[in-house]
Amino acid sequence: MKLSINKSRSLWWTISSAIILAGFISMVISWQQPNIHAPLRLGLDFIGGTRLQFVRDCTKPGNCDKPININAVREVAKTQGLGDSSIQLISENGAENGVLIRTKDLGVDQRTKLQNALSEEIGVFDPLKNQIDSVGPTLGKELLRSGLLALIVSFIGITIYMSFRFQLDFAVFAIVALFHDILITVGAFSIFGLVAGIEVDSLFIVALLTITGFSVNDTVVIYDRIRETIKINPERPIAEIVDDAVNQTLTRSINTTLTVLLTLTAIFLFGGETLRNFSLALIIGFTMGAYSSIFIASTLLTWWRERNESQLVESLEPIDTSASSQDS
């Protein structure tokens, strides 16, 4: 069975627009949240401060019998002058036996006092599972600035490369497809930040850069086939050329994407907490990269070429001079 992607291109564009719109709405809501105040829930890497993770020691009798009361944790934080901190419960062995606190930069004495106060309230912590990270606000801002600059430079480089390898319209729609993939991935993490408290760190920028490379590679394969067919048969309708190019490369695109997704799924499930969000971003981005290469970049190119051809035909139509000759 062959796909006729251009017959339903309005459907593909509508689906993408709806997903991107949901992401934008989430980013606006996220920006208005006092504990986030950004399109995404930024992690410690970007905003600076101290992140403390305390997990109860369930080997001690009765230490984990009662669930952690997050309101009690907030009260302890308030008594320590940390009432504006971000506080989440974390799961340990299927139960919420830990607490994650993201707050302003704390000194050693402040951390110790907070840990002791929390231990008295919710139970004894396991020192082997406790984690304390600290990043200065200046370094956090520099990381964010460098990450965004890297993304901008990569987009500029891809645009230049695509312009030299193909025609300008090919390059423009390849970049549109890249923006599509990045916006959906960012929007998804904005939603995750609101719903599940998922933060983005420096690895998220690495994931976005990786997504751009993967996505443009898939688009180049399809565009190469389109260009070759146009050279061989330039009179053929562009919609047929694009549909054939997609069908000829479809198996390769699906197999490549599935192979990568299997590996990323394994990392997501078994790679540990550090790589989980990184692999999740890649799963979303790579899936969208395959989708956009087939259903967005290709159909937009078809629409543009058909539009230009129709305008050219209209400009070449002969002018009816019969009426003017009769008047004369």
pLDDT averaged residue by residue: 85
Class of secondary structure makeup: alpha+beta
Multimeric organization:
single chain
Q: What is the number of helices?
A: 10
In whole angstroms, the N-to-C terminal distance is 61 Å
Q: Stretches where pLDDT falls below 50 for ≥5 residues? A: 323-328
Spatial ordering of strands, largest sheet: 2-3-1-4
User: What's the helix-strand series?
Assistant: HHEHEEHEHHHHHH
Main pleated-sheet profile: 4 strands, antiparallel
Note the topology.
Blueprint: H1 9-32, H2 44-47, E1 49-55, H3 70-79, E2 86-92, E3 95-103, H4 108-122, E4 131-135, H5 137-165, H6 168-196, H7 202-232, H8 238-270, H9 273-316, H10 322-327
Antiparallel strand pairs: 1-3, 1-4, 2-3
How would you characterize this protein structure?
It is a single chain. It is built from 10 helices and 4 strands, in the order ααβαββαβαααααα. Helices cover 69% and strands 9% of the residues. The chain is elongated, with a radius of gyration of 27 Å. With 328 residues, the chain is of the alpha+beta class. A hairpin with a 2-residue loop joins strand 2 and strand 3 (95-103). The chain has a 4-stranded antiparallel sheet with strand order 2-3-1-4.
